[in-house]
Amino acid sequence: MIRVTPVDSHAPSPHTVLGWSVTDLVKVVKELSDRGVTTLRFTGLDL
User: Fold this and answer.
1) Could you give the CA distance from residue 29 to residue 12 in angstroms, rounded to a whole number?
2) Distances (CA, A) of 37 to 3, 11, 29
3) Cβ-count burial of 34 within 10 angstroms (0-12 exposed, 13-18 middle, 19+ buried)?
4) Which residues neighbour 47 within 8 Å (Cβ) at sequence distance 6 or greater?
5) First and final CA of the chain: distance in angstroms?
6) For residues 21 and 43, is the Cβ–Cβ distance under 8 A?
7) Side-chain-side CA neighbours of residue 29 (13 Å)
8) pLDDT at 47
9) Rounded distance, CA 35 to CA 47, Å?
10) What is the residue-wise DSSP string for 26-41?
11) Would the CA dihedral through 21, 24, 29, 34 be positive or negative?
12) Residue 43: is it exposed, middle or buried by C-beta count within 10 angstroms (0-12/13-18/19+)?
């Protein structure tokens, strides 16, 4: 799902603004990691 929202003005964001929903986060993170994608893990958000 991609969300598109009209706005009156726009300035580029200094951070990532794209996200998506998944049913099995652990599986998806492993699949991405196997393909060379680096993920960030934050303390307190362990699965």
Assistant:
1) 27
2) 23, 27, 9
3) exposed
4) 25, 26
5) 23
6) no
7) 9
8) 62
9) 21
10) HHHHHHHHHTT-----
11) negative
12) exposed
Three-class DSSP category at 25? helix
Any idea which residue has 């960030």 for tokens?
40
Classify the phi-psi angles of 36: left when phi > 0, otherwise alpha if psi is within -120 to 50, otherwise beta: left
Query: Which tokens belong to 21?
Result: 């929903």
What digits encode the pLDDT tens for the residues 1-47?
677 889 999 888 898 877 788 999 889 999 999 999 998 888 887 66
